[in-house]
Amino acid sequence: QVRLVESGGGLAQAGGSLRLSCTASGSILSINTMGWYRQAPGKQRELVAGITSGGSTNYADSVKGRFTISRDNAKNTMYLQMNGLKPEDTAVYYCKVATRLGFDYWGQGTQVTVSS
């Protein structure tokens, strides 16, 4: 079992920045890949960025060059640095981990609102 706690959401103006954090506890040694997803009202949840245990990253086209995903294994924490925010980035952001045994765990979500 892995428990995820997110923080760092809030309100930002267009062009501004926010940093999200996701701290894992529990069976952290089983964690393989980690990722950030988001869900805007009336839309499906989508992958924003992912990072493997080896540090390889991938991003949605819509956030490339603006968002940076990273992880600090010593702190069991994953981050999403969001720069150049746009109103269309407004969504609830969720962190997710996938374990080596094939289980997925989700955080509770944190709201990000970008005003124009």
Residue-averaged pLDDT, rounded? 95
Percent of residues in helices comes to: under 10%
Largest sheet: 7 strands, mixed
Radius of gyration: 13 Å
By DSSP, the count of extended strands is 11
What multimeric state do the chains show?
single chain
Shape call: globular
How many helices? The count is 0
Distance between the termini: 40 Å
Query: What ranges have pLDDT less than 50 throughout 5 or more consecutive residues?
Result: none
Series of H and E elements:
EEEEEEEEEEE
Strand content: over 45%
**Structural class assignment:** mainly beta
Structure in words:
By secondary structure, the protein is mainly beta. The model has no long low-confidence stretch (mean pLDDT 95). The protein contains no helices and eleven strands. Strand 5 and strand 6 form a beta hairpin. It is globular. The strands form two sheets. Strands 2, 4, 5, 6, 9, 10 and 11 form a seven-stranded mixed beta sheet that branches. A four-stranded antiparallel beta sheet has the order 1-3-8-7, with no helix packed on it.
